[in-house]
Amino acid sequence: MTFTCRPCSHRSSHRVSKQGYYHGTVLISCPSCKNKHLISDHLQIFSDSRITLDDIMREKGQLVKRGALGGDGDVEFWDDGTTTTTEPTQPTRQIGDS
Ligand SMILES: [Zn+2]
Fold it and tell me: Rounded to the nearest whole angstrom, what is the distance from the C-alpha of residue 54 to the centroid of ligand 1?
């Protein structure tokens, strides 16, 4: 998708999966001003409080089925509908190139 950053008017292209966009939570990072912009939040990760990415990794590790962190700082979370038992001590294992 092509994204235009409102604060700095910078246009940039980002790879966002359909599953993340329609069913997950997607954050993209503006390469110009480094602001993170919430594109979709179906998992309601950011809906009720000011929460940081670190908090998400730690507290929502079991909710977030998969996450992808792009090289330019884009973050995508989604739940693929299956149930998986994860080790709560290693939530960040779920984030990475897959
Ligand atoms: Zn920007």
Answer: 22
